[in-house]
Specification:
Layout lengths: L2 E5 L2 E4 L2 E4 L3 E4 L2 E4 L5 E3 L10 H6 L9 E3 L11 H7 L4 E4 L1 H7 L10 E3 L5 E3 L4 E5 L11 E4 L4 E3 L11 H4 L9 H15 L8 H6 L2 H6 L3 E3 L6 E2 L2 H9 L12 H9 L1 E3 L5 E3 L6
Length: about 280
């Protein structure tokens, strides 16, 4: 996993995954090198990833004091329990609902949980983190936050977008993506990740961006987007256009069968895609 330094006190632990027919989706976690270090989300749980090793390239995992879990989807929780073991002094910052959802598979130790709701704050020694509900999300337990010292918005899934290549998904600056391609990708992701946006009240939806407009974060860090510096106004205006957009409809069984028909076994016994077919 590449590690990007976006500020002296901030690291992006970058990963990505290919979504057939959509693109290469960044899957970022973050390390905030505060007086009490914070890891934000814990990446994919795929067997070839070693999230703990990647964290260890930034700081000793035993020094982590907080694990801010923006929500309990699997692309955010891959290294959670390994990190809890390696960081015995760390507590998980998340919502009541997220703790409940996690408990359906593997309960969190409640004495290591710090529950937080939008509008509440967490003191991490040299700065205050303010929780907020981002205007777009796919899980009702989502809680993102603002870092008052660095001027950074950690937006969870909001502002995400699939990239046209794995290389761009690993970029350390979203400006490397063509502006029109980025706009299309972000509006697509809005309908994929937050399909309810089709039914929202337009004025109420736009009001959900007010905390971002008021703070004007210098840096937006999304799980599913390369780091975005100095673009908060542009990104807010862009996603405001998502209200009423038709929800994404994925491939059905007939489409899956056409995709599978395009696979040929390779010499190693694994399928490969025939040029010109989806996937």
């Amino acid at each position: 996993m590449p590690v990007h330094t976006v500020r002296p006190d901030l690291r992006v632990l970058n990963d990505s995954i290919e979504v057939p027919g959509i693109g290469h989706l960044p899957v970022n976690a973050f390390v905030l090198l505060a007086a009490e270090p914070v890891v934000v989300d814990t990446g994919l749980g795929l067997p070839d990833r070693d999230f703990l090793e990647t964290v260890g390239s930034v700081l000793d995992p035993a020094d982590v004091r907080w694990i801010w879990l923006t929500h309990p989807d699997r692309d955010h929780t891959g290294g959670l329990y390994d990190l809890l073991t390696a960081a015995p002094g760390a507590r998980v910052v998340t919502t009541f609902l997220s703790v409940g959802l996690l408990s359906c598979e593997r309960p969190l130790p409640l004495d290591r949980v710090r529950l937080i709701n939008p509008g509440q704050t967490l003191d991490v020694g040299d700065r205050t983190l303010t929780a907020y509900r981002p205007p777009l999300y796919d899980n009702p337990g989502t809680v993102a936050f603002f870092d008052d010292r660095s001027g950074t918005c950690f937006s969870s899934d909001c502002f995400g977008g699939p990239m046209p290549s794995a290389e761009l998904a690993r970029s350390d600056d979203v400006r490397e993506i063509d502006a029109e391609e980025l706009r299309t990708a972000q509006l697509l992701w809005a309908t994929v990740d937050s399909p309810w946006v089709e039914n929202v009240d337009h004025e109420k939806f736009l009001a959900g961006f007010e905390p971002l407009r008021e703070r004007e974060p210098e840096l937006i860090l999304s799980t599913h987007l390369p780091p975005a510096r100095g673009l908060s106004g542009t990104l807010i205006d862009r996603l405001g256009a998502a209200a009423g957009a038709p929800a994404f409809v994925g491939p059905d069984q007939a489409a899956l069968e056409r995709m599978l028909a395009g696979f040929e076994p390779s010499g190693g016994g694994r399928p490969r895609v025939v040029p010109g077919t989806p996937g």
